[in-house]
């Protein structure tokens, strides 16, 4: 299953609904292009909804880190929403769980962005 | 393809769903390393995956034809200075998911052997103690 990304705007927060696999190649490229496109348009409050991400590899983890850094370097914030158990476990193993701001509830996540 | 095969063999070997996922992911990471870092995308070079299942363990060996891997040079992805790096987590994840990992430099080429114990050996030992 290839990865798909679609954007929704709630106030000044852009929610990116991701589905499929974030792996080396297409999945990682879709995520990179999506975040870079948003940042280039000045959207720097980004919430990545990973609820329907079924699989992520080391390349995908690297892409999440890169997206986080890209947004932060522009003075923005990138948060993660609704991790599956597999993604949650991966972020714990790699000690990235404490780096990302991770939320389970969309409304609470939107509220958590700096006003 | 190597990942899918690993999934099938792990399922056939009686591993649970989480273990099947971990084994398949370890094989995927090792295969990606073989193609990217080992063979450096050279279309003339091949990589090989061998699976062996015994009552005690599943043993998977991935071999590439690259210039070899210096294991000592691999950075620790959990070190604070490496935590936010984009790459360098593949071997670490393989080690996290498998029970034993051995990397052998073949001069040229790298062979990585991944072992996952079935748990039956431990179960049999407990049975003998009764």
Would you summarize the structure shown here?
The complex is a heterodimer of chains A (115) and B (130). By secondary structure, chain A is α/β, with parallel strands linked by helices.
Can you put this structure into words, describing what you see?
The complex is a heterodimer of chains A (115) and B (130). Chain A contains 4 helices and 5 strands. With 115 residues, chain A is α/β, with parallel strands linked by helices. Chain A has a single domain (4-112), classed as STAS domain (Transcription Regulator spoIIAA, 2-Layer Sandwich). In chain A, strands 1-2-3-4-5 form a 5-stranded mixed beta sheet, sandwiched between helices. The longest helix of chain A has 16 residues, at 58-73. In chain B, strand 1 and strand 2 form a beta hairpin. The mean pLDDT of chain B is 87. Chain B is an alpha+beta fold and 130 residues long. Chain B has a 4-stranded antiparallel beta sheet with strand order 1-2-4-3, covered by helices on one side. Chain B has one domain (2-129): Histidine kinase-like ATPase, C-terminal domain (Heat Shock Protein 90, 2-Layer Sandwich), CATH 3.30.565. Classes of the chains: A alpha/beta (115), B alpha+beta (130). Chains A and B meet through helix 2 and helix 3 of A and helix 2 and helix 3 of B.
């Amino acid at each position: 299953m290839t990865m798909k990304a679609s954007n929704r705007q709630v106030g000044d927060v852009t929610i990116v609904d991701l589905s499929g696999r974030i792996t080396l190649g297409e999945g990682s490229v879709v995520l990179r292009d999506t975040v870079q496109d948003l940042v280039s348009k000045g959207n720097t409050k980004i919430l990545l909804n990973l609820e329907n991400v079924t699989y992520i590899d080391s390349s995908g983890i690297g892409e999440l880190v890169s997206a986080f850094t890209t947004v932060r370097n522009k003075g923005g914030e990138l948060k993660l929403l609704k991790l599956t158990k597999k993604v949650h476990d991966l972020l714990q193993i790699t000690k990235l769980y404490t780096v990302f701001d991770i939320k389970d509830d969309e409304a609470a996540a939107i509220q958590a962005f700096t006003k | 393809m190597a990942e899918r095969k690993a999934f099938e063999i792990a399922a056939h070997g009686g591993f649970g769903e989480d273990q099947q996922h971990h084994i398949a992911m370890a094989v995927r990471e090792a295969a990606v390393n073989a193609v990217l870092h080992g063979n450096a995308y050279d279309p003339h070079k091949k990589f090989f995956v061998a699976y062996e299942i015994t009552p005690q363990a599943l043993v998977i060996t991935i071999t590439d034809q690259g210039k070899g891997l210096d294991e000592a040079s691999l950075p620790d992805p959990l070190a604070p200075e490496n935590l936010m790096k984009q790459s360098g987590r593949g071997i670490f994840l393989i080690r996290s998911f498998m029970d034993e990992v051995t990397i052998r430099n073949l001069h040229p080429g790298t062979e990585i052997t991944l072992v996952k114990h079935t748990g039956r050996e431990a179960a049999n030992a407990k049975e003998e103690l009764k």
